[in-house]
């Protein structure tokens, strides 16, 4: 009897999971990929849009039927997940499932920071975690001639732990290219004690050193309380205040509404199989809560979503009675940290290493930038062809 496998979300994890499932399962089984638009972008490209090296249109990910041959692509908003009835409620209908893969990512919650929506509406703040926001941040930075640009992490956890610091470095690179680096001060504010705290203190200190080399101020342990748009002022929970000419924000993240309703928050998963506590349900990528041996969560990053999706596809196939190789997720990952000048550092390591992740940060090199460009090129070619 044919089985229904439903994959929610056409980001990195969802695309790979759906594609691999189609390869592993009999043609009689349905693989349905649900996404609200099938019109997204690879996260690593957003910072290049901010820098001005890419346009929004050039980095669009619009998966084609030929790239997902045999996968049913359903454009619809996911409204609810009914774990008891094993069904997904979408606009205009309902999908029953024998196995479900949730890859809905993380939602941006600008409204949870008092004053942020008003600051964005007034044009004194932008976010850079969407294509529109990255483009707006570029346009604002391109026109600045004086003052202070503040890069603010509004809450943790957030996607791509290096991104706010990369963004600051690329903004500084843009100012250098315009010949006005001394007239604008760039500062980064974060609730964490160091950048990328899961990677360990040595990596964090090295990244702080890179910021300082480019005259970027680093301000740790700064939890935002509220923003005063008319005064261009940040007010932190410790009572301190900072002013800015322009504010670039990593908004607080939250689980998508259907996930929060069904699971009460981020989805806890087994670190090696990505199976959730709900029968027949797996989750990959930013929507998950995956605890490391030291008790901290695995960072929300595309490189992990990719590895998790490969594992989940095999696990789902086994769940449905198919044979498959060992599929345990290894927790290995790497990321690039752009410094400008088409140069990048690279961090990589084993995040399941005990008692804490073992991560190495390699010195900046043009080769690492080229590796990141190759990743983007391969991804766009794979899904847009």
Automatic annotation (TrEMBL):
Pfam families in alphabetical order: Pyr_redox_2
GO terms of molecular function: oxidoreductase activity
Domain FAD/NAD(P)-binding positions: 4-307
SUPFAM superfamilies hit by this protein: FAD/NAD(P)-binding domain (SSF51905)
Name the UniProt record assigns to this protein: Sulfide:quinone oxidoreductase
Species this protein is from: Nonomuraea polychroma
